[in-house]
Specification:
Keywords: Carboxypeptidase, Hydrolase, Protease. The protein is mainly beta. Helices cover about 0% and strands about 60% of the residues. The two termini are about 30 Å apart.
Length: about 110
Amino acid sequence: LSKTGINTYNYVLADTAFIDNKMCFNIVYYPRRKNELTFKGDFWVADTTYAIKEINLQASKSANINWVKEIYIEQEFEVLNDSLFLVKRDYMMSDFAFNKKEKSRGV
């Protein structure tokens, strides 16, 4: 998260729920402009500490990343004593190809 993220992404409040006895907000985000190296997805953030509990990222189809056809990331975080943030789960799936054609085979 960044203070300048509003310049790059649109944000939508999608849901609220209690996670680990803390009120959290589910925020959906997507890029403001095409052809930029951006992601789309959603995240859960705690209401008082603004700690990210969980985030999902998928690279925009129009993002121009060499040899990367698709990339998807999921992360979950654990907060200890409201100050120490640890990665609880980290998952990444990527598909590499020598060209961006839809029918090209990935590596």
